[in-house]
Design goal:
This protein is an alpha+beta fold. The chain has three helices and four strands, in the order βαββααβ. It holds the Pfam family EthD.
Length: 100
């Protein structure tokens, strides 16, 4: 199992960001083929206090090949294009193997 992790820093306009993320981007991303599970969390702080982060999204796939295929699919490309359009300046993307 692997996951694609998107970490979002706090945007300038949180309300507009959330509107687009939850009503447009998240439904697009959820259509990626091979997606096993998607979890989105709102960051509310750190053990030391405030955080400059806003959201984290974890998208799980059965294998590296399944993740690569999802990113190369029409749905993956549409999601990526949308992501760069509204969050390109605040997002970092990471891929990880899941250890259970």
């Amino acid at each position: 199992m692997v996951k694609l992790i998107a970490i979002y820093r706090k945007p300038e306009d949180v309300e507009a960001f959330n509107e687009h993320y939850f009503n447009t981007h998240s439904p697009l991303a959820a259509k990626m083929p091979g997606l096993v599970k998607m979890e989105v969390g709102t960051i509310y702080g750190t053990p030391m206090g405030d955080s400059d982060l806003h959201l984290i999204c974890e998208m799980y796939f059965e294998s590296k090949e399944a993740l690569k295929a999802a990113l190369s699919s029409a749905e993956g490309k549409a999601s990526g294009k949308d992501l760069m359009g509204f969050a390109g300046k605040v997002v970092s993307m990471h891929m990880a193997e899941v250890h259970e």
